[in-house]
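Re: your question from the hallway

Yes, I did run it. Sequences:
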Amino acid sequence: GDSVTQMEGPVTLSEEAFLTINCTYTATGYPSLFWYVQYPGEGLQLLLKATKADDKGSNKGFEATYRKETTSFHLEKGSVQVSDSAVYFCALIPSYNNNDMRFGAGTRLTVKP
Amino acid sequence: EAQVTQNPRYLITVTGKKLTVTCSQNMNHEYMSWYRQDPGLGLRQIYYSMNVEVTDKGDVPEGYKVSRKEKRNFPLILESPSPNQTSLYFCASSLGPTGKLFFGSGTQLSVL
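Structure:
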């Protein structure tokens, strides 16, 4: 079935560094793609999403572009802050089953001052 | 404030002792679901509900039950918990299955 694969963490960066967290997917058809973020002790929150090829989702300085040719949805941010330290999950909803959101294993990001 | 409320936040129990984790949302959402989060596996869907009295299995339903008697509540029931159900559980809701998911703060369950 459809699935997502994220780069393994943890990722440790210094403040103001450039961030990339890789996410690739395997899917039949055209899934919707998402990035969720989980801050310590909290539930997941939607960060951004894209529902069709070449769409770019963006929020809070984070961006991700739906690339069908490379089946990727990499998360990027130009300058990370300590407050961005969290676990980031890539996810998809298959085109054939709207009730089934599938998550990646998560990537823990730590940003040091 | 719009929120999804899970209780309890932490629970330690013993094998075979029935337990219920409650979930309530105040956003009038039709869609609700339960996930478990395990290291290296991300979140896996246990059950979901499209509306009152409409529930269906997710990826890992074995050992769990749910009910949806009211729109706002979606409890997760473990009739006979086992140690392999030790996990972090999240309830989530949305207007529809493809809408933005709102998550509760999680329930850390340990089954001894």
